[in-house]
Specification:
By secondary structure, the protein is α+β, with helices and mostly antiparallel strands. It has helices at about 1-20, 25, and strands at about 35-40, 45-55, 55-65, 70-80, 85-90, 100-105, 110-115, 125-130, 135-140, 145-155. It is built from two helices and ten strands. Strands 1-2-3-4-5-6-7-8-9-10 form a ten-stranded antiparallel β-barrel. The longest helix has 21 residues, at about 1-20. It starts with a helix and ends with a strand.
Length: about 160
Amino acid sequence: MPLLLLAFAFISCKNGDSDTNEKEKIKSAHWLLGSWESKSAEGVLSETWTKTNDSTFQGQSYFIKEKDTIHFETIVLQQKSEALTYKATVKGQNEDRPVSFLFTETVANQLAFENPKHDYPQKITYQKDAKNNLVATISGLIDGKQSTEKYTMAKSK
């Protein structure tokens, strides 16, 4: 009986280690957490990220011009097994259903997600620059022409 308990404890520890390893991709996005903001003559762009649990971060992104919300989206960054998925739901687009982008690459302080079948964007990249700003870049083809939009935000909280 003690041998059986020892074997069970060993297997439980191994499963725990495997679970920890499975969450490494989302851990690499930890620097994304917090509130980010960019003010311009056009309005205020804000993005806020919170940790829901050890495998899920939730984000909100919105652009406000004067008192009007021009753009609002919710984002779920979630790791299941080895896959890290970025799901964006933009109010008023895609029948308010989420669009999924798969994690494709990471380098220090940078995350990239792609969905080649999406109309636009096909790629979303987040990078923390040397000044600790968050640089969000969306890119892809629009009517057969390459387009890139870059948004730089400073940490506000």
